[in-house]
Amino acid sequence: MAGRTQDPQREKTATGGDARADDATTTRKKKAPARxxxxxxxxxxxxxxxAQGAAAAPRRGTKAAAAxxxxxxxxxxxxxxxxxxxxxxxxxxxxxxxxxxxxxxxxxxxAAATTAQAAPSAPAAVxxxxxxxxxxxxxxxxxxxxxxxxxxxxxxRAKIGGYCHLNLGEEPTVVxxxxxxxxxxxxxxxxxxxxxxxxxxxxxxxxxxELFGRVDGVSRGLGGSMHMYxxxxxxxxxxxxxxxxxxxxxxxxxxxxxxxxxxxDAEAVMCQMGDGTTNIGAFHEALNLAAIWKLPIVxxxxxxxxxxxTTVEHASGEPELYKRGCSYRIPGRRVDGDDxxxxxxxxxxxxxxxxEKRQPGILEVMSHRxxxxxxxxxxxxxxxxxxxxxxxxxxxxAYRHELIEDGVLDEASADTIDGDVVxxxxxxxxxxxxxxxxxxxxxxxxxxxxxxxxxxRLMPGDPVLAAGWDKEA
Length: 473
Ligand SMILES: Cc1ncc(C[n+]2csc(CCOP(=O)(O)OP(=O)(O)O)c2C)c(N)n1
Ligand SMILES: [Mg+2]
Prior knowledge:
The protein is of the alpha/beta class and 473 residues long. The chain has one domain: Thiamin diphosphate (ThDP)-binding fold, Pyr/PP domains (Rossmann fold, 3-Layer(aba) Sandwich), CATH 3.40.50. Helices cover 45% and strands 8% of the residues. The strands form two sheets. A six-stranded parallel sheet has the order 4-3-5-6-8-7, sandwiched between helices. Strands 1-2 form a two-stranded antiparallel ribbon. Helix 9 crosses helix 19 and helix 13 runs parallel beside helix 14. The N terminus is likely disordered. Thiamine diphosphate binds next to strand 5.
């Protein structure tokens, strides 16, 4: 892997001509003294902008990727990201020092990055969240954590059927992204969508009822875990087909571009997907169209290090996924997904570029999946060491600790929040349990295809022809 990454030709191609430093992290560094410089230097966040000099490209992502040998067991993925991720969030002392060294974030590198920031397209500074907002982020992260843990439990008690993929470990990523999205923007996600639905305001009761397959669910109990949907909230799914959301989200961005003008109040689209999804053809077709049509869309790649059980390094020719837009001159940026504030900042800036300049973007969020791919996956492909490492990386207690250290929360108020979310999810479960099952005759109300061709009211197993069809009239 290291050899490939260092191939000069590959470097040239990968940076697409240039890369700028992460403006968002720089802004945060100035305004949030409680975090270390290394923290903000989540210099993993890199923007590959077209038509500038390649020299300014920060090398941290490259080194992190190079440190993870291709084809190793999945254990290598979190380890390789530990340095980068922990540098970015600065949550452990060891992480801070080790990461700074390991990633080679030098003063020279920063200076070059800052110079490059002065490029005309540098976005304006985004205001930092105040104490109440940060507490709100923690509350939402804790709520999603509790919701997902209870959802896993409800699955084992057969209250939930079908597929069920949890956001455990990705809470700060989800909260940061949703904090960046305006009510007028549109959201498309993959099947790992519960946290997004909650943070988008669909309501824990309605989301749990959907998991239970009950009529009070967000999709009337007909969609289930992978199909959270609410047109009013502009959450347009929840898709179970890997990458199925990408062409649709790109089409939504085309609709916006066709019917409205760019500007600070314009609508934009966020299209979330996993790392494994960037290898499908539709991703590349969509990027090309978004580039040539100048669509207001941000493709967000949640890099949790794995597809189902395959590591990014093993599956991707270019494992630094933020660079995937280089062929289309779409800027990319990488950010620490354990840090909700950094995620929000980066997403706001990219969304603003999309709405104001019709500049599509790629945001790669470095995250961790704490459990198996879905609730039925025991994740035996992970080593004991990796599991222990993941536990240490758990971003929910880390953010709680950070807020306490910053004097934003104290132990007692943090405990109150933790207790409140337990109650809220318990109520959501009671609400879901009390909701009726959908009536069988409504099964095909929202389908395009029918179970029996040209006979939308027939159920599978019903006689296709009316009784007596074979009798003389
Ligand atoms: C077209 C298609 N192929 C395969 C699958 C099976 N599948 C479900 S999730 C998944 C891995 C996707 O990984 P990634 O995009 O990284 O998302 P993550 O699950 O890590 O969030 C696969 C192969 C599918 N649902 N759809
Ligand atoms: Mg993944």
